[in-house]
Design brief:
Blueprint lengths: L12 E5 L3 H11 L3 E6 L8 H6 L6 E9 L5 E8 L18 E4 L3 H10 L3 E8 L8 E6 L5 E6 L23
Parallel strand pairs: 1-4, 5-8
Antiparallel strand pairs: 2-3, 3-4, 6-7, 7-8
Length: 176
């Protein structure tokens, strides 16, 4: 018997709320190299639709959302809301719901220099992983609105791959 969700193929998109869609578009397109596909909005409701379907205050207005395609990885759905009950800063990794988005690159040094040329905040120095992740280099960086992203590369694989019958999905080899 198969376990898990029937028909699951993978992550289709990652939804992110930002304070300024124009700033976010410059980041996703100019810095990361994603392509804008389409936009929708605004949306608002006079009943409790926003609360029931999106878990936000019922009088919140979703000003606009934009979809971006990011190479062979997941798409990004980027929202700008006018929250009726205010907004919180991005969670830290240690907070419930804390998160980051890891972006795989073939040439870590070139990608890191690209981020620096665009004045993107780099969080510390690159780290060389050990143990099962030996072979991987990574560093966190922040989007202009404070969300954490990770730059990661392991062009010769990770140590665990030598013995594991199952390998993590890899954006450079999406069908393996």
């Amino acid at each position: 018997m198969t376990t898990g969700m029937p028909g699951l193929r993978g992550v289709e998109h990652i939804g992110i709320t930002v304070p300024d869609l124009e700033e976010a578009e410059r980041f996703f397109v100019d810095v990361l190299g994603c392509e804008r596909v389409y936009s929708l909005g605004p949306f608002q409701s006079d009943d409790d639709w926003m609360s029931v379907h999106l878990g936000v205050h019922p009088r919140t207005v979703m000003r606009e959302l934009r979809f971006y395609r990011c190479r062979t990885g997941a798409n990004f759905e980027v929202f700008q809301y006018e929250a009726a009950d205010g907004q919180s800063p991005p969670p830290r990794n240690s907070d419930i719901g804390g998160h980051h988005v890891a972006l795989y690159v073939d040439d870590f040094d070139a990608a890191l220099e690209h981020l620096r040329r665009h004045d993107i905040e780099i969080m510390g120095e690159p780290t060389l992983s050990s143990s099962h992740s030996l072979g991987q280099t990574w560093v966190y960086f922040r989007a202009p609105w404070g969300m954490q992203f990770e730059l990661v590369s392991f062009p010769n694989g990770k140590a665990y791959e030598a013995t594991s019958p199952v390998k993590l999905w890899h954006p450079a080899r999406p069908t393996e």
